[in-house]
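Question: I have long wanted to understand how a fold can be written as tokens. Here is the record:
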Amino acid sequence: MEFIQQTFSVDYSFKVFFTRYLFNPANAEFRNYLISQTTPGLTKKLLFIVDDGVAKAHPALATEITTYLQQIEGFKLAGEIEIVPGGESCKNDQELFYRLVDLVDTQAIDRHSFVVAIGGGAVLDMVGMVAAVSHRGVRHIRIPTTVLSQNDSGVGVKNGINYKGKKNFLGTFAPPAAVFNDAHFLTTLPARDWLSGISEAVKVALIKDASFFEWLEENAAALVNNDLTVMQELVYRCAALHMAHIGGSGDPFESGSSRPLDFGHWSAHKLEQLTDFALRHGEAVSIGIAVDSVYSSLLGWISTAAAERIVNLLIKLQLPVYHELLEMKDGKPSPVVKGLQEFREHLGGRLTICLLKAIGVGAEVHVIDEMLLNEAVQHLKVNHASI
């Protein structure tokens, strides 16, 4: 049989900037980036979509953005700055998704313009999805405002919304044009959001960098006490590890089943759903890390002491390590275990779970022993549930 085969590759490149007071006129980072994107004779539009929590915590932000853009030739603000609900609820709101797609249309945002999202990871995920499917891809700029989004999701290549209760069931792989991490946004975070984002740093340290894990242990007290300088270092190191994996894994769009950056996430995603997202993503990930670390020790992969060291760090960071939904009831599997099947489907057919061979070394399995998993849960319940 005759056939024609086409093969091509696409190069992606984007920068993550680390700064403070991004829209202060004296800060040239955002201005210089836009100037680098100008086209002679063409005025490009910027559609800003802002998390309502950020807008409330920074009431002068809209004015600051408007004033800042007045300095920059070749760009203009597209209409009013759009304020949207933050948190996971925005990813469950299909009407909001389509309203923003309509906004891209009515504001005539073309492929030379930019959609700029300012907010937590959920808003970035949803707005990134809007940008990715409008005109088959409008360039988007991310300005993450939480610890979680600055050190993990905001610097990645994934976008998505939830569908029929399944997290990120609809989504795209679409790298941002640029990411701007402004540390000032972290100073107005509620304590719960400041702390919960640290779990992603623990995760990536456990699978990639033992020295970073030791640094987290040494700096746990400073992090709990809102030390911004220490948090900035955490964000930078964590973002660097995530980006190095995405760019160096050979599978940035996750076409295979290997997803080591999802260590602790198979149960976390299900816990979020079962608690109707009362658990923050980072809190659920912390619980998932604890479960999978103890499970790794029961497999004999890491020592009991290593597992306790991990759990104790999470506790020092005031993060949860247990939830009653993890338990078997009347001999029936925990409802969280059903998340294994959904996780397998999300991966594309083959269950692949990252566990630990050592602190700093992840390894994969394709089968989970549910009785051993329950033993890990019981260990956490008996020894740590009351902390």
Observations:
- The chain has a mean pLDDT of 91.
- The chain has two domains: 15-186, 203-385.
- The domain at 15-186 is CATH 3.40.50.1970 (Rossmann fold).
- The longest helix spans residues 228-248.
